[in-house]
Amino acid sequence: ETPEFLAEFQKRIDREEKIEPNDPMPSGYRKTLVRQIGQHAHSEIVGMLPEGNWITRAPTLRRKIALLAKVQDEGGHGLYLYSAAETLGVSRKQMTEELLSGKAKYSSIFNYPTPTWADMGAIGWLVDGAAIMNQIPLCRCSYGPYARAMVRVCKEESFHQRQGYEIMISLAHGSPEQKEMAQDALNRWWWPSIMMFGPHDSDSTNSDQSMAWKIKRFSNDELRQKFIDATIPQAEYLGLTVPDPDLKWNPEKNDGKGGYDFGAIDWDEFWTVVKGGGKMNVDRITARQKAWDDGEWVRDAALAHAKKQTAKKAS
Ligand code: FAQ
């Protein structure tokens, strides 16, 4: 890759041109996208598990319908994203094997357990809320197939967030026991949601290059701050307490527009979870391994069918 080639490519990025699958691109650009889109796809698929846990136990038929639709959407998001990554020359099989071997990451957030129904509220409100904050700018990502996939994904995430917040409203404005459940879920999901945005910018190894290539449009810390500023008034409306004693309005923040100061993030916990030591890491990968093994005959049958159809057409 000559310096001229890299400079020409950067000019295309700077002109806000979309990069398409067959366009020449630096190997690092391709590699970064395969890594990020692959990780994102795995997160959607593994992300079906914590909520899938509650589909059979949703408290009403209406709640069950909404949760079922949400979890199905997540499966759909995973499929779009695997397809977007496949346009870069990597196969779904390869990506899945990397997930199962631990080589590819998925979001830390899905390694926390979901012991109560209020967790369905907190996940929709906070986890999908954080996902939207991160994914809206990805609709303007320089890689065309990823950017276009994100448009539909974000519309669906918005329904997911409302679905969760509405559960939180019912619980938080319900009986004292229900309110307590909602508070307990907020206590457990707040910090992991804040961690979803990734390490501080100073420790984010990929950010500078990804920002220059306009894969990322905002840094991890910028998005985290936006999320916190948007979410605190929602917690106040619920009448719940965000579990951060250092949370404080700071009128000087965000170039004088104001924003919240917040407490120190437990990065030891974050890296422990990312490296496989969270409460649910083993369960999650075991479940994905079982699904992959159980689905082998379906993949084989689909391939055999496709081969037969091709042979029929050729004869
Ligand atoms: N968990 O240099 P950076 C959803 C890794 S939303 C695990 O800052 P980057 C919807 C990172 O990979 C969740 N690992 O990395 C849903 C890197 O390691 P590597 C998924 C993390 O890529 C809701 C290292 O740390 N969303 O699924 C995490 O520039 C509800 C250094 O970090 C996306 O994937 C983490 N939280 O920025 C589904 C969005 N954070 O790869 C079901 C697309 C960082 O060099 C229910 N991804 N790491 O070995 C992104 O925007 C970026 O990849 C970031 C990380 C912002 C996540």
TrEMBL record:
SUPFAM superfamilies: Ferritin-like (SSF47240). Transmembrane segments: none annotated. It comes from the Bacteria. InterPro entries: Aromatic_CoA_ox/epox (IPR052703), Ferritin-like (IPR012347), Ferritin-like_SF (IPR009078), PaaA (IPR011881), PaaA_PaaC (IPR007814). This is Phenylacetic acid degradation protein. It comes from Amylibacter marinus. The gene is paaA.
